[in-house]
Amino acid sequence: MSRQYYIAGNWKMHKTKESAAALAKALVAGLQDGKHKYLVAPSFTLLETVAGIVKGSAIRLGAQNMAPEEQGAHTGEVSVLQLQELGVQTVILGHSERRHIYHEDDSLINKKVRLALKQGLEVILCVGELLEEREAGKAEKVCEEQVRAGLAEVSTADLNNVVIAYEPVWAIGTGKTATPEDADAIHASIRSVIGRLYSPQEAAAIIIQYGGSVKPDNVAALMAKENVDGALVGGASLKPESFIPIAKF
Questions:
Q1: Burial, 8: exposed, middle or buried (Cβ in 10 Å; 0-12, 13-18, 19+)?
Q2: Inter-residue contact 93 to 116 (CB < 8 Å)
Q3: What is the CA radius of gyration of the chain?
Q4: Pick from 92, 247, 115, 62: nearest CA to 163
Q5: Which of 4, 33, 40, 81 has the most CB atoms around it within 10 Å of its CB?
Q6: What residues contact 136, with CB distance under 8 A and at least 6 apart?
């Protein structure tokens, strides 16, 4: 089964309206003839600005997080209904920064995953191990636990709207990258977990992105691996001259 490459840019807490609009316009122009699936995920305050620019283009609009409830007394949170109203199609959940800086646990992430899917959004579910977990030989076990917990009570039908992003935490923003072989091994392990939870067909179909210091000069080697189906790009997604070559590898 051939899976479509999916390249996503997570802008994190960068850009203001003017610079976000300039970046979005450059990406729309630069990727109009691109052959893969693309996404940008700006900060909440920039979603409306970027939505107007990417609408009708090759680029999907993503959000970096969302609340676990649809509405209510949740000061400082953003609802899935508010995101949808702005044209958001995809939400990134369980990013390592949410897990490790903001202490989101698997059950909270699962609650968000199920709510996003219930509302018809695509979910990019992030999983990945810390350096000490990798050095202890636990990388595959940690990723399996995060995948299982993140997808708890997710139906086979809803799984079609799920993308997994493997992000070794030690490679995010550090300049260190998992070797293509390291990445492929974990991706293969995650794929086998999906096969056990669902079916071999679902395992073959699911898109698994790699995230962690992806750059124009390492993207082709990563994407050449059998189980690597795309990239979740952080720092290099903030400039057209680095993101476009990654997106059109």
A1: buried
A2: yes
A3: 17
A4: 92
A5: 40
A6: none
Beta strands in 21-151 (DSSP E): 37-41, 59-63, 90-93, 122-127
Q: Of 97, 104, 122, 167, which is the active-site residue?
A: 167
The reply to whether 95 belongs to the active site is yes
Which has more pLDDT, 178 or 124?
A: 124
Catalytic residue check, 167 = yes
Among 85, 95, 122, 226, the one annotated catalytic: 95
Q: What one-letter code names the amino acid at 189? A: S
Q: What is the pLDDT of residues 119-142, one digit of tens each?
A: 999 999 999 999 999 999 999 999
Distance CA 80, CA 216 (A): 33
Q: How many residues does the chain have?
A: 249
Pick the CATH number of 6-247 from 3.50.50.60, 3.40.50.880, 3.40.50.300, 3.20.20.70: 3.20.20.70
Q: Which residue in 32, 43, 2, 35 sits closest to 238, CA to CA?
A: 43
The distance between the two most distant Cα atoms of the chain, rounded to a whole number of Å, is: 47
**Taking CA 158 as the corner, what is the angle to CA 152 and CA 161, rounded to the nearest 5 degrees?**
110
Residue among 189, 199, 166, 172 nearest 94 (CA): 166
Q: Where are the domains of the chain?
A: 6-247
Residue-wise pLDDT for 35-69, tens only, equals 999 999 999 999 999 999 999 999 999 999 999 99
- In this structure, how many other beta carbons lie within 10 angstroms of the beta carbon of residue 31? 22
d(CA 240, CA 247) in angstroms, rounded, equals: 10
